[in-house]
Amino acid sequence: MERVAIIGCSMTQFGQREGWIQDLLAEAGLECLEDAGVDADDVEHLYVSNMASGEFEGQTGVMNGLAHDIGAIPAYTQRIDQTSSSGGAGIYAAWQSVASGASEMTLLVGGEKMTHRTTGESTDVIASITHPAEYKTGVTLPSFAGMTARHYLERFDAPRESLAKVAVKNHRNGVDNPHAQFQKEVDLETVLESPIVADPLRLYDFCPITDGSAALMLCPESVAEEYADDYVVISGIDGATDTHVVHEREDPTVMGGVVESGKGAYEMSGRDPEDIDVAELHDMFTILEFLQMEGLGFAEQGEAWKLVEEGYTERDSGELPINTSGGLKSKGHPLGASGVAQGVEIYEQLVGEAGQRQVEADVGLCCNVGGFGNCVITTIMEAAQ
Amino acid sequence: MERVAIIGCSMTQFGQREGWIQDLLAEAGLECLEDAGVDADDVEHLYVSNMASGEFEGQTGVMNGLAHDIGAIPAYTQRIDQTSSSGGAGIYAAWQSVASGASEMTLLVGGEKMTHRTTGESTDVIASITHPAEYKTGVTLPSFAGMTARHYLERFDAPRESLAKVAVKNHRNGVDNPHAQFQKEVDLETVLESPIVADPLRLYDFCPITDGSAALMLCPESVAEEYADDYVVISGIDGATDTHVVHEREDPTVMGGVVESGKGAYEMSGRDPEDIDVAELHDMFTILEFLQMEGLGFAEQGEAWKLVEEGYTERDSGELPINTSGGLKSKGHPLGASGVAQGVEIYEQLVGEAGQRQVEADVGLCCNVGGFGNCVITTIMEAAQ
Q: Which residue ranges does the record assign to the Thiolase C-terminal domain (chains A, B) (predicted)?
């Protein structure tokens, strides 16, 4: 079967944005068409990764609105929701559309508009991702993160500072990302002294609420060659669920969805963790970066914190730079956009368009986490010059 | 490429149901596993067609809830939304998952829980499918239907009764569908004297608001042979959009999405309209059955009403039985479930499991319409004994 390629990308400014979801989707969609050099008329499938435009803005049918706004009618449209991993699921859906022969040119646009709602209202929508047995008794995603972090630190004798160092690193990377919500460094002290949210986690252990959109253009490799000299292929992709009731998991430090989706993506690509040169992980909470590093085989269980302490994941000096984009932590986390934006960063790193953030990389990986690992999708991409 | 088969189906009782969306999805999901003889462990991809569980019930992540409820974890999950054609889009997504080689066993469950909300609240959610330039000034889907029906009747000199006969036929078919919301006949007079909703259309020209769920099991044909003697293959499938602003269309009686998706499905299957033995059309409003008959080539433009008058689409005596299930009109229209339920009816007709509704058929077609034809998906299925 022919490989599926990515030939262009775009990303809007992340942060607090004017307008509504359709503006953000159209902005990213039009820029991606331009970046890929593709006419809107040639888009056969148009996918929108978006979790909750209906809940956030009372507007549904946003994929058809996007087809209208960018002039892609009569392209086939679909909205993809896999909660906070909708973007990664969008990459998988777009991959399937091309790999199945259904489409020779698929535009994927992920986006979410959240900041016009209060943090409480947004949290209500986000909480409903998980099982009501938990969130209706107050165990929301930040609570899971706090309990898991406490357990991890105690069990593996990890210092609290190691978590804070994830935030410091990702903020430092975000300084060089002109689209990031926060383009500012934070020091260890600021993280450690920020207000408590879910003990031991504090404000700077959490990603913000964000508006934004990002896009990727996918097609068969034979078509990619007509459009670009440098492009990227998706060599491995898989998704998996873990228990929907989080407290039913045997080991709270193991995210089964990360392990299973990673296994599938490695197998499909014929790659090992050692082959990965750069990775975007879903650092919605700092503790999640540790859990994904371990679940994906970058570190042994309970040892990811040591690699972070040693600088193994630093952008400029580390062996495996993680979240060169700034991660969800500093770049922001517009739910449906985040997984697509991870793909944008890996694409730019692999084709050498990452500017100040550029690292040496031929093989990259993204891991996009829904809920508290309730559903996860892992994608491996490779440069194909 | 290997063909994609359907090896089992299920459908819950449609109507006003107790419980919530997760109950309906689980009921259909478990029944489909049993009908197909597939273990939950063997489901690789689990897709949920659902437009608005967040808006209707404040619950998101329902695909992960379903994986939990039927024991399908760690299957990959995704929610598919294409507004009122989410079910048809789910068939396309499930088809792509199998055709791309990503999954060897995909369970698709469509469902919606609507009746606990007032009709006004439901109408608000449904109105938001279309472009705000129209619905925010009061032009909702029923208004489009009324205006289009008036235009059609005047322009093609069709009698008002011809529309009412669609309702009478579909109600008559629904009597023999034990899962239909309304299992009762209505006579012409009842339809013609029912309260006006959007002149010239009256209450009985509209489908009801409904709770319900339906499911299909898809796999490669080589796998199907291990599970079933009689199964169905999807020989053609395609989707398309039309203008998102409805009044921008050149001819209000032509649904471009129907025409384009039909063309794609016919081309892929190598079939013509003449080859279709039975069809499920999206009769959300009676006028839509005419427009789809014409858009799909079953009748010339402006002539579908004549075929209905002649009895061409009757179940027991017609040349092309349409909506043998009772259609959305009498079966009900739980948004995300409807397109899947169309597939269930065609599957049952093709494998000879349609009971009292059985017609002679080797090739069947479903057309699922989102919005007012803003997005449409057409599927052609064939018996493969």
A: 240-382
